[in-house]
Amino acid sequence: MKKRKSVRLIALFAVFMLMVIFAGCTNNTQAPVYEGMEVAETVAKKDESVSFRSLETAAAQTTVMKQQSPDITLTDNLEEPVYSAEQGDDILLHIHFFNPKEFEILSFTLNGSKFNSYMFEQGSTTELIILKVNAGENVGSREYTIDGIKYVDGTKIKNAVIAGEQTIEINIRLKLALTETLTTEDGFIFDLYNNGTAILKEFQKTDGSAAIIPEKVKGCTVIAIESQAFSFGYPRSIYIPASVIRIDKDVVWGGGEMRCMIFVEAESQPSGWVEHWSWTDNIVWNVKPETLVKVGEARYLLLENTASLARYEGEGDSLFIVPKTINVDGKVYPVTSVGEKAFMISCSSGNYPYQFEAPIE
Questions:
Q1: Alpha-carbon distances, residue 48 vs 45, 51, 96, 176, 275 (angstroms)
Q2: Is the pLDDT of residue 11 over 60?
Q3: Is the pTM of this model over 0.85?
């Protein structure tokens, strides 16, 4: 009987010890586990003096900045998920934990700087720590690495388990700022920005002068045209270079009196141009700048060995004689055709009078 009791006591003691060991193992596995971090939001310092609006694109900034500063590390593949912020932006980091026992996260280091729990942002929990950091002023790729995560277990401070990726990379872009508003002799008004881009705001000439938009102005690439840029000037011809990747609505408008012909370097309408950017359908696509030349009162499109009169830009006070040939930089081009709307006065007023110097074959 005594022997049976002893066996029973030994068995109970063994079960108790197993429970203690199991409890200890379970407690160890319940330490907070760091799972990773991400950029939740970037908060820009508002500057009402700069209005780049929808005309700004990461692609344009990246391209221009890499051209100007090849030593800057920037991300080219915009299809990949990339964290980015501008100079001086506040960045909200979300730091994730698996923490079923809800231990208090006491502190950690980020890029060698210690952050204590009182520095965490409002909304932080035992499984999500929100931290605000500043992007700083250095442009380029910057890494943020978390380490040394501590938590409180009763009266003891312990190390959390690190299971997630400890480093994220953020692309710090140049903070956009307007540097100059420039009026050119050709009648254009451009806003120039510190990232090497320019926006066409307005064309001012009202005498019918052609508006040949340059690809660059004062070293800045012209990437956008604002709404109603041609609402005051009515050029007979407009040329838009391939550098223009954003166009706002109603850039070219004027209803029945609109009399311009638009030549575009792009082969078709770029995705960054709004659908109703022009009120006229007098548009010729895929025109390279070197093939559109002005000779006398007309503008011609050069083909390999011939020329086509694309737009008459004279006053129309007298009969215009279409020349048999034109001379461009010493090369003679036979004029073999005239564009359908080359002599259009306006959408409702017919054509300027003209005739051919010689029959076009």
A1: 10, 7, 35, 12, 28
A2: no
A3: no
